[in-house]
Amino acid sequence: MRQAAQAQRVVVVGGGAAGLYTALTLRALNPRVRVTLLTKRKIEESNTWYAQGGIAAVLPGTAGPDSIGAHIADTLAAGAGLCAEDAVTLMCEEAPRHITRLEELGVPFDVDGGRPAVGREAAHSAPRILRIGGDASGAGLASGLIPAVRADDAIDVTEHAFVTRILRTWDGSGCRAAGVEFIPGTGTGPASVIQADAVVLATGGAGQLFEHTTNPSVATADGVALAWRAGAVVADAEFFQFHPTALDVPGHPLISEAVRGEGARLVDASGKRFLQYFSDAGDLAPRDIVSRSIARHLAATGEARVFLDATGLGRAFLERRFPTLTALTRGHGLDWSAEPIPVVPAAHYWMGGVQTDTSGRTSLPGLYAVGEVACTGVHGANRLASNSLLEGLVFGARAAADLSAPASWPVFASTPLDLGGSGVEQVFTRSELQRLMSDHAGVVRDGGGLRIAAKQLAQFGIAGSSVADREQGNLLLAARLVVHAAAARTASRGAHYRSDEPDSASNRRSVPEGSGKPVGSGNSMAFSDPAAGVAP
Asked: Checking DSSP bridges between strand 367-369 and strand 415-417, what pairing results, if any?
């Protein structure tokens, strides 16, 4: 494959941890590069900002039985046999140096007795979750990275910029990314174009596909849609993680898994614990198991909701360890130190996305993807708690390193797929799409429901060109990808649970010859016409 020249102009799309850290690392490695960072809303509005738990990392000199090998093993176990082991190993081994770099950038990790404070979360075999501000780790991380980005005169930040297209051009070797087109966040102004040597997608996920989600309103699958329309391969779209404990109030704010790590328990309406009937790990089972156990328990009992009981932790501990959550619950008229609080599984993290190698490179030369929008294989069928911020840091830095000294571009095996609709243009609302996806492609799925969803999605269409309309179009495309992939994977695995095949252990990842990286069995998909839309 062709060897590319060092990038001198790079566009980063997205202002969460992955995008910010990629921009900063790229500038540190290549002082001559100029970076334009585009965000759909204000730079603080990202999934990163709302993250609570922290960053999983095993630091040198860690007390107790923990090790990097144990972190790797826990990640592989949570991923239900579908992780790319090379990516997992890189992520866990490279974690310590990125924590050191964050400290150099002024990120204020919590300490305990002069050492970094660590907590434990579900499916981790030891306490290794570094936190910031108790339960405000995402905001703390972003608050450290954003000023560093703004202070760099060679990083141009443009907020309220909605990217509509990845520009492409032909060179002697074929098609490659050549910049982006974007419109103002209101959608009322003319389109602008930025030519670039490379584009990095760091746009986050697609939680707005479902009725209950912990994601902010900006999580509308924009990056996956941009990459798909540019001809990049998408993989593992069926794997969507539902966090088991979102507060059951409007907006469904997240209740961190760290609360259960400290000893809180899930109970039913009668106050009885029930998870031990579904998993030997009980309340500390992986998220996919806990979420579907809640769904199965409610279906069996006919009850409407379950509860998180943190009363045993005591008021003083809750206020000190979880100040943000204490204020959140109090704001909804709840006293979680005195009574269990209602919770519901909510769409939280998309393990699938734009397929990349371990340097963030997609199948389209010049296009990189990092963070939640990417599918490196590091999460397999189910992400281990607090590996998401870590993934954005590690692979964002690796993408920056590749941009500074690019290597040969990867080729991924994929199946061409035409997601065209039925020709019927039925305008739909976001709530209608969310209800359809929650009913038929949520925590529990089956073949009949997925066929219903596919038929309905084929009839949906977009009528306008405003930012809201474009977000609808991106969600519709993502919904079709999820449903297609979920129907193709007939066996249950991790976060993809088929009630018509609940106990299957087949459909392991396969390694296509020459790719050097596992991809989802039969579920790596490419746009049916990758040559369309090339800029003249």
From this structure: unpaired
Q: What is the DSSP string of 162-199?
A: EEEEEEEEEETTEEEEEEEEEEETTS-SPPEEEE-SEE
**Both structure tokens of 207:** 């939680």
With cut-offs at 50, 70 and 90, classify the pLDDT of residue 232: very high
For residue 131, give the nearest of 324, 315, 307 by alpha carbon.
Answer: 324
Please enumerate in sequence order all residues whose Cβ is within 8 A of that of 316, keeping only pairs 6 or more positions apart, or say none: none
pLDDT one-digit tens code per residue, 76-132:
999 999 999 999 999 999 999 999 999 999 999 999 888 889 999 889 999 999 999
| Antiparallel, parallel or unpaired: β 192-195 and 174-184 | antiparallel
Backbone angle region of 516, left / alpha / beta, with phi > 0 → left and psi within -120 to 50 → alpha: left
The alpha carbon of residue 311 and the mean position of all alpha carbons in its chain are separated, in whole angstroms, by: 31
- At residue 509 the predicted structure's pLDDT band, cuts being 50, 70 and 90, is very low
Catalytic position from the list 27, 287, 296, 321: 287
DSSP 387-430: -HHHHHHHHHHHHHHHHHS--PPP----EEE-----S--EE--H
| Tokens found for residue 433 | 């799409």
Given this model, what pLDDT does residue 407 score?
Answer: 73
Q: Which residues 6+ apart lie within 8 Å of 222 measured at CB? A: 40, 162, 163, 203, 471, 474
**Exposed (0-12), middle (13-18) or buried (19+): which is 302, by Cβ within 10 Å?**
exposed
Q: 3-state SS of 252-316?
A: CCECCCHHHHCCCEEECCCCCECHHHCCCCHHHCCHHHHHHHHHHHHHHHCCCCEEEECHHHCHH
Name, in order, each residue with C-beta under 8 angstroms of 318's C-beta and a sequence gap of 6 or more. 310, 325, 326, 336, 337
Instruction: Let me know the angle formed at the C-alpha of 397 by 392 and 402, rounded to the nearest 5 degrees.
Output: 125
Q: Is 287 a catalytic residue?
A: yes
Q: Which two tokens stand for residue 354?
A: 């734009």
Pairing relationship of beta strands 426-427 and 460-461 according to DSSP bridges: parallel
